[in-house]
Amino acid sequence: MTGRTGLRVAEEELLPPAEWGRGRGAASGTRAALAFGALAAALVLGRSWAAPRIDARALDAWATIFVAVCVQALPFLVFGVALSAAITAFVPASVWRRVLPRRPGAAVPVAGAMGAVLPGCECASVPVAGGLMARGVAPAAALTFLLAAPAINPIVLVATAVAFPGRPEMVAGRFAASLLVAVLAGWTWLLLGRREWLRVPSRPHAHGAAGRLDAFRQAMRHDIMHAGGFLVVGAAAAATINAAVPSQWVSSAAGNAVVSVLLLAVLAVLMSICSEADAFVAASLSQFSTTARLTFLVVGPMVDLKLIALQAGFFGRSFAVRFVPLTFCLAVGVSALVGGLLS
Predict the structure, then answer these.
(1) Are 69 and 272 in contact (CB under 8 A)?
(2) Which of 79, 131, 166, 169 has its CB 3.0 to 4.6 Å from that of 84, i.e. a possible disulfide?
(3) Residue that wins the pLDDT comparison between 265 and 220
(4) Which of 12-16, 123-127, 257-261 has the highest mean pLDDT?
(5) What region does 316 belong to: left with phi over 0, alpha with psi -120 to 50, or beta?
(6) Count of domains in the chain?
(7) For residue 13, is it within any domain?
(8) Cβ distance 166 to 307 under 8 Å?
(9) How far apart are the C-alpha atoms of 129 and 149, rounded to whole Å?
């Protein structure tokens, strides 16, 4: 070999085996140190430019919302990742073949009903759905479970009943509309979805007790690092929107029936409130109609910024750009229909 690369190889051949690659590692360490120094300098310069232009109260609000979203979601994300890893490592694929019907069309509503028994938020449902797909569950059924679990589980329904005392129709409306949206989304993906649009998460094969424990650890490590990053991105986006949208814009639109429904649907996406807590926010929006608040409760657990980021990270951007608009349109349409029946 000739040139600089050949010289480096020749130099390494003259060194003991323990010294091979040390020069290469030192060079990469130098590059990393230079990159870190450049980033630190950019942050210092950016702070000196941005600090006079940012209101302290707005910055405090942004930080509060960002931390609140992360703290709210992280326990459920860890729970979902642990459950997904346990499904991958310890539950044989044959179990799902016995629980779910063989026909994907029939498996979709069954998977939706399974969401009613698993406490958790939308952050937990994404890795669990990925684990189900990795164990051979039809993607349409796993996606139905992904949408139903954070919206109709017992904790969410009890929280809704507490937030709306004396109004059982809000609990029933939320349950019916959310389950219907989940099933319709699953059937639609079954009919129109293509395999190349969805990236099914891969999982290591487990052999024996030691192999299962190792597979559990690997899946936990991979998913928590992968999902945690996208959670931070989604929380930062939600905090930015919450701090930037003036509150008077929200109040002025409450009087228009159509605008109020669309506004609360969009706010549910942007605010990214955990499904266990969103009922109390909806109850506080007393200036809005029942239909608009029901839309807020149905859309939020199925389409929000952190959930979009998690779906794109787990299943690919091609999936997210198709499944998110589908879910949003179905959630708004079904909520308006059910809300009209309740009014």
Answers:
(1) yes
(2) 131
(3) 265
(4) 257-261
(5) left
(6) 1
(7) no
(8) no
(9) 10
Phi, psi of 20 (to 5 degrees): -65, 140
- How many residues does the structure list for the chain? 343
The residue range of the domain holding 190 is 56-342
User: Do the domain assignments include residue 47?
Assistant: no
Cβ distance 215 to 88 under 8 Å?
Answer: yes
Tokens of 102: 């063989």
Alpha helices in the chain (DSSP H): 3-13, 22-50, 56-90, 93-99, 104-114, 122-134, 139-152, 154-163, 168-192, 208-244, 247-252, 257-271, 278-284, 290-299, 305-315, 317-342
d(Cα 248, Cα 24) in Å, to the nearest integer?
Answer: 58
CA distances from 27 to 23, 30, 161, 194, 277 (A): 6, 5, 61, 45, 50
Amino acid type, 138: A
CA distances for 99 relative to 74, 102, 133, 201, angstroms: 29, 9, 14, 21
Report which of 2, 318, 294, 10 is spatially closest to residue 163, judged by C-alpha positions: 294
Does residue 12 belong to any structural domain of this protein?
no
- The one-character DSSP state at 103 is S
Task: Using alpha carbons, select from 115, 125, 263 the residue that is nearest to residue 175.
Answer: 115
Structure confidence by residue, pLDDT tens digits, 147-202: 998 888 887 888 888 888 989 999 999 999 999 999 999 999 999 988 899 988 76
DSSP letters spanning 271-309: H---TTTHHHHHHH-TTS-HHHHHHHHHHTTTS-HHHHH
Mean pLDDT along residues 70-86: 70
Q: Is residue 292 domain-resident?
A: yes
